[in-house]
Amino acid sequence: METLGGILLFAAMAASVLGVLNLIKPQAWMKIKKRRYGALMILGSLFATGLGGSMLPVPEDSAVKAVADQTDTNPIVRDGVTQEEFEVIWTSVKNYMARCDGPLTAAGTALESGDVYAAYGPTKSAAEACEAAWLDMGKIRIPKSAKGDAKTALKDALDTCNTAIYLKREALKQLQTVLDGDVRPSIMEDTKDKLERGGGLSTKCTFDFLAAATQSKLMLPELQEAFDQAKEK
After folding, report:
1. pLDDT for 75
2. What string of DSSP letters covers the chain?
């Protein structure tokens, strides 16, 4: 997966450069006659960059090390929000993120085809899916048992994840405008910015929930499973 991720990132960089060239002036040698195809190449490269980056190994975070050290030396003490309450919120967040990211990936694949007609439908569907997921995530409520810093950490984590989906939703809506022929530099730059920020906040979403779990002296289920498997070995 790491090798494939690196290949995707390299290909995305090449596609981005070619896309810029075609956006400025369609390249006859590539048999491209319209600037909008250059825009599609740039947007497709953004999706490939996000996909490739997700396949690369994540550097060990200090928060992860802190949780690991705590697990090795001290038993987990339940304080404030319970592990069960935390996992209900975290599972919901992951489901809502997946409801947006799945259609978003499909839209990216359609965009890479360079066919604006084939790409419009998946892009519209992705925008609608992300909007529905964003609205549902806004309904998540923090348990009353969460107090003080634990409550603040949970709220910050939810805000990060919510903003990630919102930015993807807004970017997809603007992509529909691009597919309709509006390839003004301002629209392209704003769409690119929203996609990049949305992708970055998606990663931060996980780390913020890791921090929220640590604040409540809990653990992400994925980490607990990994530690349990390590102990068995």
Report:
1. 41
2. -HHHHHHHHHHHHHHHHHHHHHHHS--GGGT---HHHHHHHHHHHHHHHHHHHHHSPPPPPHHHHHHHHHHHHSPPPP-SS-HHHHHHHHHHHHHHHHHHHHHHHHHHHHHHTT-HHHHHHHHHHHHHHHHHHHHHHTT----TT--HHHHHHHHHHHHHHHHHHHHHHHHHHHHHHHHTT---HHHHHHHHHHHHHHHHHHHHHHHHHHHHHHHTT---HHHHHHHHHHHH-
Which pLDDT score, from 0 to 100, does residue 106 have?
A: 94
**What is the mean pLDDT of the segment spanning 116-136?**
95
What pLDDT was estimated at residue 182? 86
What pLDDT, in 10s, does the model give residues 36-46? 555 555 556 55
